[in-house]
Amino acid sequence: MPETPPAFPQWPGQHLGLPESGPRSIARYGRRLAAVAIDWGLAVLIAVAFFDYDALVLQGLFVALQILPLVLVNASIGHLLLGLRLQRIEGGRLGVWRPIVRSLLLGLVIPALIVDNDQRGLHDRAVRTILLRR
Question: Which InterPro entries did the record assign (predicted)?
């Protein structure tokens, strides 16, 4: 008889069959924030060096620095440095539209702050992705 998922999971991703910790577990807030800080810092460095720190250019650079590596390797630069990767809930390649939509929503900030029990922000829920530890 199949096991019924708990009404209140003991850890994020439990009802998805993901482990509590280690590889393939859901990335926790500390790593997520550090990865975003790395990506933002890189965008700031490029904006200062080449664009006289224009706020609109900075935001565009941040979004672009999310999209390109997500399409190519399923992780932003910050994700790669911290051992994280983005994956579709169903598995398989992300494709192109998911990283674009996810990154645009992440650039708005607010969708990333509204999270569910699996610590997935609205930007991940909208495109059915999940950020995992490698």
Answer: Pra-immunoreactive (IPR051791), UCP021697 (IPR016795)
